[in-house]
Design goal:
Shape: globular
Bound molecules: glutamine
Distance between the termini: 63 Å
CATH architecture of the largest domain: 3-Layer(aba) Sandwich
Radius of gyration: 25 Å
Number of strands: 23
Number of domains: 2
Low-confidence stretches: none
Helix content: 25-40%
């Protein structure tokens, strides 16, 4: 097993995750069996209880692990399913070590950061690659110098010592600011980051220099001189139209030759499988505008998997999607912002804030035949809206938002009753969904009766209301294996209104986009063409 570790210098937000994903993509498509690990030095056990405002989306893996959104990037760039072992946090490491201590596994010795914590970190890194993995790529969250990442840096230094220089490579992502009239490229922040890394015993082999413009010849020479990294190991990573162009950017600078030389991988034969995908992204033939109605619209990383899923659709079909981020609360004042969109997505969410605006979006879509896709909370909101307006249950709600509602059309999953712990306790991960033959869902999934999708929810459609909803034109065309959990809904006589309890955005990949996002975009394009020139839409507030 060999290892490539990517650290971050200067500051966060430089795109370390995309660089890690891109290098891994190049290696995978050169025939290497690669695994990727994200180290998150925070104390949380996983990202499950974190606020999307601070950390962006919580990404759900097949095994139900609620992980950092970078795992989503890895899965998309590598077309690989990862698991809980691919996300190492301080919380997981310390919990394990303290549990061992309580069991008496350390036989009376003093338990310390070195060696006990660092050993546990190395153990986790080594087992993260499944059997057959040749290279594990590790991204270290945070920035060199952070107190909380110290034990991880120390463990990685030890890893190189134990595995040997020819089996472990270190890369550092830094910033090259460009200032003054002449936009002079400054290398000092990079020099400082490299020296703090070296003071911890970690000597980088590669530098990823983030700058607005291409790295100049002299800048590259200067970085090399001051850091000892050969020029072949210094890569210019400029701001890019799309994250999916970054692998090519690195490939064009010969990164595979350098890595192959360092790790003695022999001649790597790289196959560029994203050529057509990139061409469609760069030159789309059509455009549609789609609204994403959420409560974290100031921070679109909270809905990153939806954004990527739509990008994947563009890469496949050449239909560019202009996303209009709509703050759901604003819809309570006016629905005007929706008047120019050809499709509406209501994504997942928790808590009452923003819900009434999402109900308005669902009603607007239903009344105006605007293509609609509801996901998880968006699915539940579609049920609430329908119950209120069509069934006339004016106070219908989810018991998540109003415990005393007379009509809890969305209610707690029975197995959630009495749970007192929030972390990792929802209905999580990959589950079978059974589709009804002859339904729109069945048609969308190409005639497959059984599909597998990822979940993350505590509430569900209340059994008691299903027959009434169905008698009035809502069709539940997908459910779980036992036939009790509703998973998919559509409307009678209306093909472009669909919603799922599961999160299809998590399994979307560049060359195999989420089928529901693809369907929404196709429906939006059709809607746009049919309505060209038409202006008036209605909206009734009950
Ligand atoms: N809050 C809802 C539930 O727990 C929806 C969850 C979600 O959208 N991920 O069921």
């Amino acid at each position: 097993m060999q290892y490539i570790v990517i650290f971050g210098g200067v500051m966060s937000g430089l795109g370390k995750g995309i660089i890690t994903s891109s290098l891994s993509h190049l290696l995978v498509n050169s025939g290497k069996r690669v695994s990727v690990v994200k180290i998150d030095p925070y104390l949380n056990y996983d990202a499950g209880t974190m606020n999307p405002y601070q950390h962006g989306e919580v990404f759900v893996l097949n095994d139900g692990n609620e992980s950092d959104l970078d795992l989503g990037n890895y899965e998309r760039f590598l077309d690989l399913d990862l698991g809980e072992e691919n996300n190492i946090t301080t919380g997981k490491v310390y919990k394990e070590v303290i549990e061992k201590e309580r069991r008496g596994d350390y036989l009376g010795s003093t338990v310390q950061i070195i060696p006990h914590i660092t050993n546990e970190i190395k153990r986790r890194i080594r087992k993260a690659g499944k059997a057959g993995t040749e290279i594990t790529v590790i991204e270290v969250g945070g920035t060199v110098g952070d107190i909380e990442s110290m034990p991880f840096l120390e463990a990685l230094r030890q890893l190189r010592r134990e595995e040997g220089d020819s089996n472990v490579m270190f890369g550092l992502v830094t910033l090259i600011p460009e200032i003054g009239r002449g936009m002079e490229q400054k290398t000092k922040p990079t020099q400082h980051s490299v020296s703090s890394l070296r003071s911890l015993g970690i000597v980088p082999d590669m530098i990823f220099a983030r700058s607005q413009n291409q790295l100049e010849v002299d800048t590259r020479k200067k970085i090399s001189l001051f850091t000892d990294v050969p020029e072949e190991g210094i890569y210019s990573v400029t701001d890019s139209e799309s994250i999916y162009f970054v692998p090519e950017m690195l490939h064009g600078q010969g990164i595979l030759d350098y890595v192959s030389w360092k790790l003695d991988l022999g001649g790597l034969m790289y196959r560029d499988i994203w050529k057509e995908f990139r061409e469609n992204l760069a030159n789309p033939s059509e455009r549609v505008k789609v609204a994403i109605v959420g409560k974290y619209t100031a921070l679109t990383d909270a809905y990153i998997s939806h954004r990527e899923a739509l990008t994947h659709v563009t890469g496949k079909n050449g239909i560019a999607v202009d996303i209009k981020w709509v703050d759901s609360d604003k819809l309570k004042e006016s629905v005007e912002v929706l008047s120019d969109v050809s499709g509406i997505i209501v994504p997942g969410g928790f808590g009452y804030r923003g819900v009434e605006g999402k109900v308005i979006a669902a009603r607007y879509a239903r009344e105006n035949s605007v293509p609609f896709l509801g996901i998880c909370l968006g699915f539940q909101v579609a049920v609430i809206e329908f119950a209120r307006d069509v069934l006339g249950l004016k106070e219908a709600n989810s018991s998540e938002f109003n415990e005393n509602t007379p009509d809890p059309v969305i209610d707690l999953l029975p197995e959630q009753e009495g749970l007192d712990s929030l972390g990792g306790t929802m209905r999580l991960g990959l589950k079978n969904v059974i589709l009804n033959e002859g339904s729109e869902a069945f048609e969308i999934y190409g005639g497959n009766k059984v599909i597998q999708e990822r979940h993350r929810h505590r509430y569900e459609v209340n059994q008691k209301y299903i027959s009434r909803l169905e008698e009035n034109g809502m069709i539940f065309s997908g459910c779980d294996e036992e036939g009790v959990r509703m998973e998919f809904l559509e409307l009678k006589d209306r093909k472009n209104f669909i919603a799922s309890q599961y999160h299809c955005e998590f399994k979307s990949r560049p060359l195999s986009p989420s089928i529901l996002h693809e369907r929404l975009v196709m429906n939006a394009l059709k809607y746009k063409k049919e309505r060209e020139g038409e202006t008036s839409r209605k909206y009734s507030i009950a």
